[in-house]
Write a structure and sequence with these properties.
- α1 crosses α12 and α5 runs parallel beside α10.
- The protein folds into 3 domains: about 150 residues, Rossmann fold, CATH 3.40.50.720; about 160 residues, Dihydrodipicolinate Reductase, domain 2; about 90 residues, Alpha-Beta Plaits, CATH 3.30.70.
- The longest helix has 21 residues.
- Helix content is about 35%, strand content about 25%.
- α5 links the parallel β5 and β6.
- Strands 7, 8, 9, 10, 11, 12, 13, 14, 15, 16 and 17 form an 11-stranded mixed β-sheet that branches.
- The chain contains 14 helices and 17 strands.
- With about 450 residues, the protein is α/β, with parallel strands linked by helices.
- The chain binds 1,4-dihydronicotinamide adenine dinucleotide (NAI), the ligand N[C@@H](CC=O)C(=O)O and sodium ion (NA).
- 1,4-dihydronicotinamide adenine dinucleotide (NAI) binds next to α1.
- This is Homoserine dehydrogenase.
- It catalyses: L-homoserine + NAD(+) = L-aspartate 4-semialdehyde + NADH + H(+); L-homoserine + NADP(+) = L-aspartate 4-semialdehyde + NADPH + H(+).
- Its cofactor is a metal cation.
Length: about 450
């Protein structure tokens, strides 16, 4: 950084988020200067292909030599919004080794390599900020990393993927098909380049890993996260949830086990949430994160979790912070992974469950079902029986049971499901969904 000269910023990626970040950097120069105390100069934008026009961005800034851009030696801040593992990983590491602070929105990379990235930032005395990586515009990384670091987090539960929340919401409130709702989410710029990452839960799993690592001061990777997406959620599941006073949400959940040496539970799955819970009313592409801590109690963070402008807002907050640190000659050294907690297997996680299945309509069947649940330590909260008519009435199974359980472990649930699947008085197709929140 030249004395009194501008701080030099390099941007990698000019897609949905990157082109918006570039526009803010170019259009809001005076405002940003007043907030940082020094001009921010966008010196180059690494792109995959040149020759593509982006409105409001001077094409002379584009270069296909992203590595050359970040290693030229005079860059103060590198913003990585390419996504994916490579070449983003090599570029980010090279940028930090060349003395630049890094801002990234890349949860996939962070959830794979957080320990290495943090260590590289610390070794090179540069900043690594990533507010945009979880829940877009919503400030959640900084609250966990700074504001709540003196407290004890008990649980974090959130809607952290805008695309899937949009799809589930449109399937529920506008009777759109899964495919129609996904297409709309893609058109609106919420979905990942490959929307499989959204609908299969991988994007939420990456965010869950980052949240769990921050909440419990340990290393958690995406591969540690139990993950089920929303591709098998049907209109019938949504209707069943509605009948039970619930909505279906894809939740990322992390909490600790009650052991002497608590282990981390971290999971993503479609969840029935009671309509009275604050997360139930989070609609469209909005995200929300519910944090339960020892001293602060329950906190709810709500807002836009995806889209170019909201995500650029989070990126720019980090850019200004890193630029201010730069001027002070300091970096936010962050100690990560110092608790070395184990991640518990999914079998040890607990939840309530809603299980529905068809049964023969004859004396003793209800008692036999109750015995199956009891044998596996799963206590019943409510049982509803409805009669099947017409085409629904298959192979003599004339009634459908909808069972809401008390909290039980996944291992015990698996025992119940296996036994129901084998029982002669139970029809094929036992459905279940986890239930969280009260
Ligand atoms: N779109 C959203 O709402 C949000 C996105 N994010 C994250 O932000 C990042 C960017 O997302 P989007 O802008 O939506 O993706 P995008 O796919 O619209 O943009 C990525 C851009 O990077 C370019 N690119 C690929 N390889 C490159 C290379 N070697 N050098 C330079 N550019 C290269 C692509 O051509 C593309 O234009 C991802 O990590 C994503 O997970 C985070 C929060 C919200
Ligand atoms: N594809 C993601 C974008 C933000 O991280 C989403 O839908 O939430
Ligand atoms: Na955020």
């Amino acid at each position: 950084m030249a004395e009194n000269g501008p701080l030099k910023v390099a941007l990698l990626g000019a897609g949905v988020v990157g082109s918006q970040v570039a526009r803010v950097l170019l259009a809001e120069g005076d405002t940003l200067e007043s907030r940082v105390g020094r001009r921010l100069e966008l010196v180059g934008i690494g792109v995959r292909r040149e020759g593509i026009e982006r409105a409001g961005i001077d094409s002379s800034l584009f270069t296909t030599d992203s590595m050359g851009l970040v290693t030229r030696g005079d860059i103060d801040v590198v913003i990585e919004v390419i996504g994916g593992i490579e070449p983003a990983r090599s570029l980010v590491l090279a940028a930090m080794r060349s003395g630049a602070s890094v801002i990234t929105a890349n949860k996939a990379l962070l959830a794979q390599d957080m320990a290495k990235l943090s260590a590289t930032a610390n070794d090179n005395e540069v900043d690594l900020y990533y507010e945009a990586a979880v829940a877009g515009a919503i400030p959640i990384i900084r609250p966990l990393r700074e504001s709540l670091v003196g407290d004890e987090i008990r649980a974090v539960m959130g809607i952290v993927n805008g695309t899937t929340n949009y799809i589930l919401d449109k399937m529920t409130t506008a009777s759109l098909s899964f495919e129609e709702a996904l297409q709309q989410a893609q058109d609106l710029g919420f979905a990942e380049a490959d929307p499989t990452a959204d609908v299969e839960g991988h994007d939420a799993a990456a965010k869950a890993a980052i949240l769990a690592g921050l909440a419990f001061h340990t290393d958690v990777r995406q591969s540690d996260v139990f993950c089920e997406g929303i591709t098998s959620v049907t209109a019938d599941d949504i209707a069943a949830a509605d009948a039970m006073g619930c909505v279906v949400k894809l939740l990322a959940i992390t909490k600790l086990t009650n052991d002497d040496e608590p282990r981390v539970i971290v999971k993503v799955h479609p969840t029935m949430v009671p309509k009275t819970h604050p997360l139930a009313s989070v609609s469209g592409a909005f995200n929300a994160i519910f944090v339960d801590s020892r001293d602060a109690g329950q906190l709810m963070f709500l807002g836009a979790g995806a889209g170019g402008a909201p995500t650029a807002s989070a990126v720019m907050g980090d850019v200004v912070t890193a630029a201010r640190n730069r001027l002070r000659g300091s970096a936010a050294h962050v100690q990560t992974g110092y608790m070395k907690r184990e991640v518990a297997p999914i079998g040890d996680a607990t939840a309530r469950y809603y299980i529905s299945f068809d049964v023969e309509d004859r004396p003793g069947v209800l008692a036999a079902c109750a015995t199956v649940f009891a044998r596996h330590n799963v206590s019943l909260q409510t049982v509803q029986q409805s009669y099947l008519e017409g085409l629904e009435r298959r192979d003599g199974f004339a009634a459908r049971l909808g069972v809401m359980t008390h909290e039980a472990s996944e291992t015990d649930l698996a025992g119940v499901l296996a036994e129901l699947a084998e029982a002669s008085f139970v029809g094929t197709g036992v459905n279940y969904m986890r239930v969280e929140g009260s």
